[in-house]
Amino acid sequence: MNAILLRGALRSVAVLIGIVAVIDPAWSSARSAPRDLVAVNLTSSDIRAALASLHSSLPGWNLIPRETEGPRIPCGAEEKCVVIADGSRDAGIPTDLRSPASLLTIRPTISPNVSLQSVVVGGGHVAAAGTARVELTREGDVARTQIEIRDGAAVIGTATHEWTSASASVDVPWWPIETGARTLRIEARAADGESTGIDNAIDVGVTVEGVKAAVLVYDARPSWNSTFVRRALEDDARFMVDYRVRLAPALSAGTANGRLDSRLLDAASVVVIGGPDVLTAGEVSLLEQYVRVRGGTLVLLPERRDPGQAARLFGTSWSEHLTAAPERVGPLYATEILRSDEVARTSTVLARSGSLASIVAAPSGSGRVIVSGAMDAWRYRDLDAGAFDRFWRSLIAEGAAAGEGLQLRFVRALEPTGARARFTLRDRRMTPLSTVDAGAVFRCEDGAAHVVRLWPAGSLGEFAGEVPLARTGSCSVEATVGDRHVTSAVAVADRPMRGTKPTLASLAQRVDRAGGSIGSLENVSLVARAVESSPPTMSPVVTTHPMRTWWWMIPFAGCLSLEWWLRRRGGLR
Fold first, then answer.
1. How do strand 144-151 and strand 180-188 relate by DSSP bridges?
2. 439: closest CA among 451, 456, 427?
3. Distance, CA of 188 to CA of 161 (rounded, Å)
4. What was the pLDDT predicted at 362?
5. CB 180: neighbour CB atoms within 10 A?
6. Residue 472 and residue 560: Cα distance in Å, rounded?
7. Could you give the residue ranges of the DSSP H alpha helices within 268-386?
8. Distance, CA of 401 to CA of 418 (rounded, Å)
9. Biggest alpha carbon distance in the chain?
10. CA distance 326 to 339
11. What residues contact residue 561 under an 8 Å CB cut-off, 6+ apart?
12. Which fold does the domain 213-402 belong to in CATH?
């Protein structure tokens, strides 16, 4: 009886295995992945101390160090990442991370130390020198710092600063050596005993122009003020100056293209008006259209308090201030001064007389209006060591760059290799086109030209685009809108140094915006808590078919073989 039951049981097990194999059941499961943390090195120094601090603050976690080679940090969407940065290198943070990346900053604390905080480069014309405003700080005993500006291997500007305080602002003159997009390196020579040089250099991009800016000088009546401003501009190779002086209601003198009409205003980047108090109502309306619609830069050089018909161009009320001796108005000197205490928040005060604004730039529509209250500054040019000419040349150069009719501007003048450079194309005219036909091509160095796709961006005549930057050097975009043509370039470097402070600030802003945590080497716990509290990374869902494994054949064959052996032993077939 026992043998019969045993044979039945063995046969039932074999049949059951066969039935289940035919059904082929399956189930799915997901398990927590290992506690891995990717530590991305975005420094120019040793990060072993940072890794040791993370390891001690995160027991049980497996740290995986990685180096950043491209324009983005190497972190997968499902990975947990912490970026270790000292500001010497920058990279993009992926937006598809399931857990936001954290930032651990490392700052040099050993003195003596000289640090470049920021650099603003002015100029950019092959016919004139530029100026770089360098902000720097020191720690410890540093008496003197040498600052150099390099274009490749060539030194194109130098300055020496004698330290008297912990921070300083230094203007360094520089001279362009070639047109196009250039990468300039501004470097502060390391002090004796300085332990690190990661914060001693900043790379900036600048486009060196070779074309002349179109400037129109129009005197509604003879004006000494505008005459001397015009002479300063005519002596500068950066400007192509046309002028016209109205001597009587039906009599004027000047160049052929010195008239106030829509066609010539369309071509002018800057318009300088002398004697604005006698402008006619029609001329004022035309200049308003030039500023608000065309987006040009208008410079008013009054010589009287009463602006006449041009009152609406001045924007605010002005009072007259007369002195017996010349007073300082910014870099200029004057005795007949217009001043205002009602400057709008959107305006920029370029120079003051005492505590009140005297030279003001105010936005108006698409353009800007600059009012100079130093009415007789031309009389005292012998007191300012040439500041009169330098002031007006630099101001008109900046106004011309902002007042171009067709503008192509890159978001950043310097980009790393592998990035995509975004730009904006703007076409502004006295009478906007009803339909706009625009096209653009780009090329890097002497490579082949490629068509760029343009997208409408905002108002009529405004477009946006982006180009890939595959190699170092200069990449240019040539654009055409209607009958206008413009070319602009962007500089490309392998690993541009943007300064430790702005680079860390930019990284921190991006990490904070994505919801990540920010800590320093002295306070690793902030990052550790963020990593511990982040949701666990789950492994992918796995579907299992247990009956498809080969070892089920062993019990199946074993049951059938044993059942057959028992039958044969009992004399059964």
1. antiparallel
2. 451
3. 10
4. 95
5. 18
6. 75
7. 281-292, 311-314
8. 29
9. 141
10. 15
11. none
12. Rossmann fold (3.40.50)
Residue ranges covered by each domain of the chain: 2-26+545-569, 36-108+497-533, 113-208, 213-402, 406-493
Phi, psi of 425 (to 5 degrees): -115, 125
Distance of CA 260 to the CA centre of its chain: 37
Q: What is the distance between the alpha carbons of residues 211 and 232, in angstroms, rounded to a whole number?
A: 18
Q: How many CB atoms lie within 10 A of CB 405?
A: 21
User: What sign has the CA pseudo-torsion 522, 525, 526, 532?
Assistant: positive
Contact indicator for 125, 206 with CB cutoff of 8 Å? no
Q: Which two tokens stand for residue 69?
A: 């080679």
> DSSP of 367-380, one letter per residue?
EEEEEE-BTTGGGG
Phi-psi sector, 408: left (phi>0), alpha (psi -120 to 50), beta: beta
Query: Is the previous residue joined to 112 through a cis bond, with omega within 30 degrees of 0?
Result: yes
Which CATH number does 36-108+497-533 carry? Answer: 3.40.50
Is 561 strand, coil or helix? helix
In the block, tokens 């003048």 appear at 413
Q: Which residues, in sequence order, are CB contacts of 370 under 8 Å at separation 6+?
A: 297, 298, 299, 300, 350, 359, 360, 361, 362, 395, 399
Q: What is the mean pLDDT of residues 245-256?
A: 90
Strand order in the sheet with 201-208: 154-162, 144-151, 180-188, 201-208
Per residue in 78-133, pLDDT tens?
Answer: 888 999 988 888 888 888 888 888 898 887 666 678 888 889 997 788 888 889 99
Strands (DSSP E) found in 282-390: 297-301, 319-329, 332-339, 348-353, 356-364, 367-372
Confidence of residue 55 (pLDDT cuts 50, 70, 90): confident
Using alpha carbons, select from 366, 271, 345, 277 the residue that is nearest to residue 314: 277
Chain segment 209-218, per-residue pLDDT in tens: 889 999 999 9
The type of residue at 298 is L
Contacts of 389 (CB under 8 A, 6+ apart): 232, 235, 381
- The CATH class of the 113-208 domain is mainly beta
Domain 406-493 has CATH 2.60.40.1930: yes
Percent of the chain at pLDDT > 90 equals 47
Q: Is the pLDDT of residue 17 over 80?
A: no
Whether pLDDT at 8 is above 80: no
pLDDT bracket for residue 465 (50, 70, 90):
very high
Residue type, 328: R
Q: Tell me how far apart the alpha carbons of residues 462 and 456 are, in angstroms, rounded to a whole number.
A: 6
Q: CATH topology of 36-108+497-533 equal to that of 113-208?
A: no
Write the DSSP assignment of 98-119 as a string of letters.
Answer: SSPPEEEE----PSSEEEEEEE
Q: List CB contacts of 551: < 8 A, sequence separation 6 or more.
A: none
List pLDDT tens digits, range 363-383. Answer: 999 999 999 999 999 999 988
